[in-house]
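Annotated sample (chain length 105).
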Amino acid sequence: MRNEKGMMMTKIRNKKKKKQKKKKKKKQKKKKKKQKKKKKQKKKKKKKKKKKKKKKKKKKKKKKKDSFIYLPRVHMMLHDIAITDYENDFDLQRIDYQNHRKGLG
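Output written by the structure step:
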């Protein structure tokens, strides 16, 4: 009698364990499916973003080509002006320093 009761209990326990295992497997499968779905969605989003970015870059390049035209003569004039401005500034600084040394400024 005792032995039979023990056998029944083990059978019941084993059944419960099997059920739990099945549940666990189902949960894992669901989880994997969800993860796969999420990955696919992320990839789709990334592709869309990349496409949008490429379009924007193309527009910018077109603008850059039209905006700046190099004219050597004008460039040289600007260069000369910049040099003279710098020299004038340097001269003024020197004069200020000399006056400072003399006690005038």
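Annotation: The helical segments are 2-67, 72-102.
Annotation: DSSP finds two helices and no strands in the chain.
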